[in-house]
Specification:
The complex is a heterodimer of chains A (315) and B (305). Chain A is α/β, with parallel strands linked by helices and 315 residues long. In chain A, 39% of the residues lie in helices and 18% in strands. In chain B, 28% of the residues are buried. The chains are: A alpha/beta (315), B alpha+beta (305).
């Protein structure tokens, strides 16, 4: 699978950072751990293709240094339950079977019991982590209709394997997360997403899904030309505009329509699901969910409540 | 130093005038050179390779002019050189006049053809003020090997390397139609980029370029508009609705309502241009009317998706 060079690099500076978020869009206050930079999965729409120039994949494996930064961040935070993830600049699991970077992090969060670690992936192999999993690690999968996986995520695990791995994590006592991100508009996508949600509800225990994010395809403008050059018909089917944050995204009326459809479908399976929109505007939130989310703080508050409800007094 | 053999006047019939192995000039026909030679004759002799028959290394434009003017002989210097040296000679003997993008592409293509290494070619790219990157070289090779129609268009409009790259993404038939489409239009580099991007997008989205829908545009703005309607019909329909509501509201010159161009922002800007208290009063009255008539609500609705 891996044709890219993987190199270990000296770990320095801030490895634990706030998710960059984007201007005038509501961000969930996620914290990122830049454990690995670059990804072997090379999804056709991935923003890493525009953000990361290097051909090689860089691994920061000075674990004590990273853990001390995590410890500082958790100690400093008094108002919220922090959520950390390693899937911002890479896939959390794609290289883990070989490099075993997640195990010490999982153990750290399990001992700390004050914050959550999310491992977000499209690579459905978690067996090596099963002995170490604890409730403070969230195994998450980005999910798409198999048609999109076949055409745009060619190096990733098939949908059923991702869902089976998620189920395995649930059976091991973990909560899991799901990310319908990027949602792509193409001819017949409505039906495909309906089947996808059917599969999710059939294979997973929805009461043990901690959160589901919805995010329609968005990307830096330089990728638009890349998509045209590489004839990415699926990715270019909808209408794109340049958002206030400078990123290309579908026209607002298309976004609202699609989010509404997905939100309703998911809620019809389990009304208790915690569904959030990734990097969306206040008015889109309102139209889709009926909730008024004025700023990032309001959304972070929803996460706190969700986690407290699921974990009781144990966090 | 070049081993010059001799300067002589040589009959055209003794030269292989069809051998263009060392030709990088584009276009070969040059009105200025033709006029100059008509007045004074060929001042600078052609460079010929000492082969049998001799072939031109440098001076293809002069040769063309001489032929057009009915000359039967030309002044020439014959040189002894390998083919690789001859390629370098033709490039360096033309470099002072400033090569256009097609000629730069031809020069690099000739170098690769005659076996120069990648490093040597990249060195020449530096000399020609081109970024020495594989992607740039590939685009230039494609240009050098492309049809005359495209090369002429790129030369005539001084098309940038970026826009040349866009044009090369289309096949020959599409390029021919695109050039026809643009031939009667004054187009700047910026609007050419926009148009080519939109045509490319149209091709991916629809699987083909609908030339019938975009032909006969009177100018670049109209062409871009039509392409936007084809590639972004929802956005175009919102723009049309906004225009219609504003027309129905009959806004006076002192009042304007600005909406985010992509209907993304939740708010609108209402601009008043006033010179006196009376103007303010009149503007407020007008705003009150259009508010009561529901036009502001209609415009706000457009921004709410």
């Amino acid at each position: 699978m891996n044709l890219q060079r993987v190199e270990r690099v000296a770990t320095q500076g801030s490895i634990v950072r706030d998710c960059p978020g984007t201007q005038n869009h509501i961000c969930c206050g996620y914290k990122t751990i830049d454990l690995v930079e670059g990804c072997v999965l090379s999804c056709s729409y991935c923003i890493l293709q525009a953000y990361l120039n290097s051909q090689s994949i860089k691994i920061h494996d000075n674990i004590p240094y990273i853990l001390s930064q995590l410890d500082d961040a958790i100690t400093r935070e008094t108002g919220h339950i922090l959520r950390f993830g390693t899937g911002e600049l890479s896939d959390s699991l794609a290289l883990d079977r070989k490099y075993r970077l997640n195990q010490p992090l999982i153990e750290f969060f399990g001992e700390k019991k004050k914050a959550l670690l999310e491992l977000k992936s499209k690579w459905a192999y978690i067996d090596h982590l099963l002995p170490y999993l604890n409730p403070y690690t969230i195994i998450s999968f980005s999910v798409s209709p198999q048609r999109i996986i076949d055409q745009e995520e060619r190096k990733t695990s098939p949908l059923y394997k991702r869902l089976k791995a998620a189920r395995k994590a649930q059976d091991a006592g973990c909560f899991v997360g799901l990310h319908l991100d990027p949602v792509i508009i193409y001819p017949g996508f409505e039906k495909d997403y309906q089947y996808l949600i059917e599969d999710i509800s059939r294979l997973l225990d929805l009461d043990r899904v901690i959160w589901i994010s919805l995010g329609l395809l968005r990307f830096p403008p330089q990728l638009l030309d890349h998509f045209v050059e590489h004839n990415r018909k699926n990715l270019l089917h909808g209408e794109f505009i340049r958002g206030e944050d400078g990123k290309m995204r579908y026209l607002k009326q298309q976004r609202i329509k699609v989010y509404r459809m997905l939100y309703k479908l998911l809620k019809s399976k389990n009304d208790g699901l915690f569904i959030y929109l990734c990097m969306e505007r206040e008015d889109v939130w309102k139209k889709v969910t009926g909730m008024t989310i004025r700023d990032n703080e309001a959304l972070v508050g929803l996460f706190d409540t969700r986690i407290k409800n699921l974990y009781g007094g144990s966090i | 130093m070049l081993p010059f053999l001799k300067m002589t006047t040589i009959p055209l019939s003794n030269i292989d005038v069809h051998d263009r192995a060392f030709c990088i000039s584009h276009p070969v026909y040059d009105e200025t050179i033709l006029s100059s030679i008509r007045q004074l004759g060929i001042v600078e002799p052609l460079l010929l390779l000492n082969s049998s028959p001799p072939v031109v290394v440098s001076g293809f434009k002069r040769l063309q002019a001489a032929t057009d003017l009915g000359y039967w002989q030309v002044p020439a210097v014959t040189i002894e050189a390998t083919e690789k040296e001859a390629v370098l000679i033709t490039i360096h003997s033309n470099i002072h006049r400033g090569l256009n993008i097609v000629e730069k592409a031809n020069a690099l293509e000739r170098m690769l053809h005659f076996g120069f290494s990648r490093e040597e070619v990249f060195g020449m790219m530096n000399l020609l003020s081109l970024g020495p990157h594989e992607k740039v070289l590939t685009a230039l090779m494609n240009l050098a090997n492309s049809e005359k129609l495209l090369k002429d268009f790129i030369y005539r409009h001084s098309v940038s390397l970026k826009n040349t790259g866009y044009l090369l993404r289309f096949d020959v038939t599409e390029r021919k139609k695109i050039i026809q489409l643009l031939s009667g239009i004054h187009i700047t580099e910026g609007s050419l980029r926009d148009v080519l991007e939109l045509i490319g997008l149209m091709k991916v989205k629809k699987g083909r370029i609908g030339f019938k829908k975009i032909q006969d545009a009177e100018d670049a703005v109209a062409l871009r508009k039509r392409l936007q309607e084809e590639t972004s019909p929802l956005l175009s329909s919102l723009e049309k609705k906004l225009k219609r509501v504003k027309e129905q509201a009959s806004l006076p010159p002192g009042i304007d309502i600005k909406v985010d161009p992509f209907f993304e922002k939740e708010y609108i800007d209402i601009l008043l241009k006033v010179k006196s208290e009376g103007d303010v009063k009149a503007s407020i009255e007008k705003l009150k009317t259009i508010l009561e008539d529901g036009y502001i609500r209609s415009i706000l609705e457009l921004t709410k998706g």
